[in-house]
Fold this sequence. Notes:
Layout (H helix, E strand, L loop, with lengths): L1 H45 L5 H21 L3 H20 L12 H16 L7 H4 L34
Helix pairs in contact: 1-2, 1-4, 2-3, 3-4
Keywords: Cell membrane, Membrane, Transmembrane, Transmembrane helix
Membrane topology: Multi-pass membrane protein
GO cellular component, one term: plasma membrane
Amino acid sequence: MAPFLRFIRDFALLVTRIIVGVTLVAHGWHRWQVTGLEEQMDIIAEVGLPSAYGLAVATVAFEIIGGILLIFGLATPLVGLGMLVLNAAIILTTKADSGFYAHENGWEYNAVQAGVGLILLAFGSGRAGLDHLFIRPRDEDGVLISPAPPPRQPPPAAADDDTQPPHS
């Protein structure tokens, strides 16, 4: 049963990474090419955060680059941490008083993104991500490499007369 559950976890992480990665790239691209960095800078400056241009560029770059990395399963825990921090900051600075629902400019979408970021931070990309090529997974006990089993002892000699050397 454990191999099946591990397969399901890896498959779920793969699907989640692809969907969230595409969503991040689409949002970053939209902020960059459609609404423009100026609108992002206005939102950041309106809430009183310093360096509005730098934060706007960093947000858009994170969404586009982080989304691409998620699609391939590279640096997944780091991107998950970024998603968690970015969306928590958005909720606390711009959406806290807006209500819950996203269609009313609330924090619903950002809460979901922060939750997914936490899951990706905790579980990584799974075996279907490229992270798996660079990060050696630990077993369930947290041991990176299990110790070698003790060598097998030969079975005790039988007490047959044929196997005993002749006595003189």
